[in-house]
Amino acid sequence: MAPKSTPRAVIHLEGTTLEGGGQLVRIALGLSSLTKKPINITNIRGKRSGGGGLKAQHLTSVQWLGQACNAGLSGVGLKSKEITFTPKQDEQGKTFNVEEQGGQVRITQSTPGSINLIFQAILPYILFSGTASPICVRIVGGTNVSNSPSYEYIHEVLVPMLALIGVPPIEAEVHSRGWSQGSTSLGNITYTIQPLQTKLPAFQLEQRGSITHVKAIIIAPRDMEQSFRGELDVMFEKRESRFFGANTTAGDFDITFEDSHHEKRYYLLLVATTSTGIKLGRDWLYNQAIRPGKTERIVPTMVKKVLDDILAEIEHGGCVDEYMRDQLVIFQALADGKSHVSSGRRGDELVHPSLHAKTAMWVAKEIIGVNFDEEGGCKGVGFRPGGQAKEEEKEADLEDLASDLKVLDVSSS
Ligand SMILES: Nc1ncnc2c1ncn2[C@@H]1O[C@H](COP(=O)(O)OP(=O)(O)OP(=O)(O)O)[C@@H](O)[C@H]1O
Description:
Blueprint: E1 11-14, H1 22-35, E2 39-42, H2 56-68, E3 71-74, E4 83-87, E5 104-107, H3 115-127, E6 135-141, H4 151-164, E7 171-176, E8 187-193, E9 204-205, E10 211-220, H5 225-244, E11 252-259, E12 267-274, E13 279-285, H6 298-315, H7 322-334, E14 336-341, E15 345-346, E16 349-350, H8 355-368, E17 377-381, H9 390-412
Parallel strand pairs: 1-2, 5-6, 9-14, 10-11
Antiparallel strand pairs: 2-4, 3-4, 6-8, 7-8, 10-12, 12-13, 14-17, 15-16
Helix pairs in contact: 1-2, 1-3, 1-8, 2-3, 5-6, 7-8
The protein binds adenosine-5'-triphosphate.
Organism: Ampelomyces quisqualis (Powdery mildew agent)
Keywords: ATP-binding, Nucleotide-binding
InterPro entries: RNA3'_phos_cyclase_dom, RNA3'_phos_cyclase_dom_sf, RNA3'_term_phos_cyc, RNA3'P_cycl/enolpyr_Trfase_a/b, RPTC_insert
């Protein structure tokens, strides 16, 4: 029996739902590209100021994914508020054409839109594409951009955490930096991704362990190095027992410094590593006004804020920081069976997912029907790399069977 492509209903997603920003668009596109379910998104980024619609960074992701999975695009352009994305279901739609280009992908932007949000949009598709050889993705844009994961966060937190849940190691190399602060500049990063060859097994992030190491990464004007190091040493020492417990010799602390080559570029990331290999991170790309000669408060303000933020992540006892929980939703949804991600407690209350995470969970439910519980559990669909999830295979088979029966009915009447 020749395979048939049964037209499927377009899934409508209202873009103002929950967070109502770009995260909704990225997750929706990733899941639609993989499952081949067409989507229509209205009021895109409808909760953002400035009129909403697709920004360059989102447009780039739509266009790249559309090309990769051979999708029909409707309404797609800069500032578009409504798009329809219709991946092909036939043989053509199964071709991941990147292989034809020797596994080399180049994505260029002319503004420092976040490289890592494009990476976030396309990573699930590449990982689950079923491609046998590694894919090198070089993306031009911003490496350090406000309200998005920095290169450092991806390298120090996201990539190790993905390895922990069973994703093949991803290599990340920054060639040059692109900043949204100071004078804007373009940078570029290469990610080398080994796609999954089998389903991603369900994963359990439930054992936080004790903190064994804390790392500080500073990128700032060279003349601020000593000030940062001194402030971090003093403030860290005061809080040491909150990191390592009573036995403070159980952990160590180190600092790296890089010159940002600009008087208005200050970045600080703190990463805590635990005895079970968990990484928790918090950072700040300084985004307040900087006046010449008035810089003395910047370092203490940054150090205090980022230390307090990382301590709050450590003290809830969970296995993910706020941002990591956002990023893991799509992997829980696609994994094979029930995964758990412990988010910890504050007092008697479980730490609730961020609005970004709730949005991602909502999109995953709308497109592939998965549900997340209060404790961070989700039974994923068991998406087979290069193909459909178990449930969808059954659904597609049933649809084929139903349409075959209809054909038989017609011909026999
Ligand atoms: N400091 C940070 N570290 C790591 N990840 C971050 C950080 N700040 C934001 N993120 C992540 O970046 C993403 C931001 O999504 P969001 O929809 O707000 O951005 P966007 O696409 O730029 O859209 P919009 O302009 O509509 O806000 C989320 O996945 C969030 O977890």
